[in-house]
Amino acid sequence: MPTRRSFLRTVAGGIALANAGVMARRARAELPQGTVDSAVRDTLPGKQPLIKRSFRPPNYESPVQYLDDVITPNDRFFVRWHLSNIPHIDADSWRLHVGGEAAERGFELTMDQLKHDFEPVELVAVCQCAGNRRGFSEPHVPGVEWGYGAMGNARWKGARLKDILARAGLKKDAVEIAFNGSDRAPLEGTPVFAKSIPAWKAMDENTLIAYEMNGAPLPHWNGFPARIVVPGWTATYWMKQVVSIRALSQPLASFWMNTAYRIPKGKFPIIDRFTSQESETTTPITEILVSSLMTNVGDGRRFAADQPVLIKGIAWDGGYGIRAVDVSVDEGRSWQSAELGENHGKYSFRTWQFTYVPRAAGRVSVMARASNSQGTSQPSELIFNGAGYHNNVVQTIVIDIV
Ligand SMILES: Nc1nc2c(c(=O)[nH]1)N[C@H]1C(S)=C(S)[C@@H](COP(=O)(O)O)O[C@H]1N2
Ligand SMILES: [Mo]
Q1: Which helix (H) or strand (E) holds 270?
Q2: In principle, which of 151, 173, 222, 325 could form an S-S bond with 352, CB 3.0–4.6 Å?
């Protein structure tokens, strides 16, 4: 199974595989061949090596080992763009335009005003692409064939969007707040990347216009000089290089709202709804589903019998808060509680660890399953959808006890 092996070599890098026969026989999530072939490490300026999924536009994910720390450093943070003309922005000449038909008044902000006229707020939040793990969909679906690393967790600092909207004066009929970035398609006719969120989500005190990430200016690739941060919601709304904010009295009509980033209604355990954009059958993707990832151990790792094996990982959700992580070492027949690490806030990764002592040689499936304060946990079967969104199926890794 060269496919599986080369995937492991590149993605799980550094993990010693005994041989191809090590792999479990039962059906397991695999990335398609095209993904495997393109899964090379590559270094964008200012970044550590990331796993390249595409170059134009740049789509690079973090190797799983980078997610072993609760905060993902800026130079290890994944990169996702839809359009390939990404300008280098000069913070001094950058302006943020605020207005729209559902605002009493429009105005412009410089970076200096954004930083000093509004109270700065800091919070830790997971930025996760809606299509994270899409590459594991069965059957395979079109789109960037992400593995596990189209996500990261950072401390964001910025102004509250609600404070900026207060200066603009929201009219009663404001239904959505729309954002535009600065990136453009090389071909005319490709829709610009425009997104909106419900007015109530824009007024949430945690929704920010961030100008710092982990105590530093945002990296160019992650939206310098400012981006929208919508804690708890998938990253499609986290507009990078934001240049305009508009209050709308009608739902935003844009390819990126009306066609892309939608999920079938009623299939997922979602609480936050985006009703102004709902159709008969589909609804925009909103909050992140509860999930977990093992970060220090990968498929094919070997451990000695009677020695403790430490399994470490992270868990996160859409901001309800992780309640527990359970681990199974017997194909899901029984589950034991992992120990949760420090709480960095309800939108953050939560680290966890679990130690177990294998008593006999053989192959062991290790599974981790998080649940949140709503009592929602991860499904054991993929909730299939044509765009491969929201893949939070319980992760299984196979290790060998020798
Ligand atoms: N301007 C702009 N903002 C954007 C996008 C984009 O293509 N252009 N992609 C969005 C999507 S789908 C994701 S997953 C995140 C990725 O954020 P990152 O590159 O900082 O990891 O940015 C969001 N903001
Ligand atoms: Mo995304």
Answers
A1: none
A2: 325
Ligand 1: residues with CB < 6 A are 77-82, 127, 129, 181, 183, 193, 222-223, 235-236, 238-241
Q: Give whole-number Cα distances, 245 to 78, 209, 230, in Å.
A: 25, 10, 14
391 residue type, one letter: N
pLDDT at 10: 35
The string of DSSP codes covering 275-296 is GGG--SSEEE--BPPPEEEE-S
What tens digit of pLDDT does each residue of 237-246 get?
Answer: 999 999 999 9
Asked if residue 228 lies in contact with residue 208, where contact means CB atoms within 8 angstroms, the answer is yes
398: pLDDT strictly greater than 80? yes
User: Read out DSSP for 381-402?
Assistant: S----TT-----PPEEEEEEE-
Q: Hey, whose CA ends up nearest to atom 16 of ligand 1?
A: 80
What is d(CA 48, CA 53) in angstroms, rounded to the nearest whole number? 15
Please write the tens of the pLDDT for every residue from 105-130. Answer: 999 999 999 999 999 999 999 999 99
State the pairing for strand pair 350-356/339-340: antiparallel
Rounded CA separation 135/139 (Å): 10
Gap between the Cα atoms of 362 and 242, Å rounded:
53
Structure tokens at 226: 């400012």
Computed over every residue of the chain, the mean pLDDT equals 91
Distance, CA 2 to ligand 1 centroid (Å)? 33
What pTM was estimated for this model as a whole? 0.91
The answer for residues whose C-beta is within 8 angstroms of residue 268's C-beta and 6 or more apart is 289, 383, 390
Write down all domains in the chain, each with its CATH number in brackets: 96-120+153-284 (3.90.420.10), 291-401 (2.60.40.650)
Count of residues for the chain? 402
